[in-house]
Design a protein that fits this description.
Elements: E1 8-12, H1 19-22, E2 28-32, H2 42-53, E3 59-61, H3 68-81, E4 83-88, H4 95-105, E5 109-114, E6 117-121
Parallel strand pairs: 3-4
Antiparallel strand pairs: 1-2, 4-6, 5-6
Length: 134
């Protein structure tokens, strides 16, 4: 029997992607989860989905995929806006696997995935800078 700490999770993924993407999606990964956000209830998620409907995609995943530069750009956009849309121009077939990885790498919440677009949310820790109030 394997013992796993309470704040950890095991992610099992089947990877059939190019070598450049394999570094981000390991076959078996043990990741510590960081609780930077408060757990969102259904009412808060509905509100964020409604707000996300009116947004234009802030960033686009291109040929480089989830590179360090792209992740830094997503992190900066989340710090500035809290709620953003990301469009998958490339890697459209892998968007189901990449969306949770993107949310995890940026310490954000995956609000919804529709078509080739995902909506991410990360509340600003400073109450004075929070743009979305619940």
């Amino acid at each position: 029997m394997i013992s796993i700490p309470g704040n950890a999770r095991i992610v099992l993924k089947r990877v059939e992607t190019p070598v450049s993407f394999s570094a981000l999606a390991e076959t078996v990964a043990f990741r510590q989860t960081e609780k930077t956000n408060v757990e969102l209830n259904n009412q808060q998620i509905r509100k964020l989905k409604a707000l996300g409907q009116h947004l234009n995609p802030t960033l686009k995943v291109g040929k480089a995929g989830l590179s360090e530069g792209f992740l830094k750009s997503v992190d900066e956009a989340l710090s500035l806006h809290e709620l953003i849309k990301v469009k998958f121009d490339d890697f459209k077939e892998e968007k189901k696997e990449l969306s949770p990885v993107l949310a995890e790498k940026t310490s954000s919440e995956l609000i919804q995935r529709v078509g080739h677009v995902v909506v991410l949310f990360r509340q600003n820790p400073d109450p004075a800078k929070q743009k979305i109030k619940f």
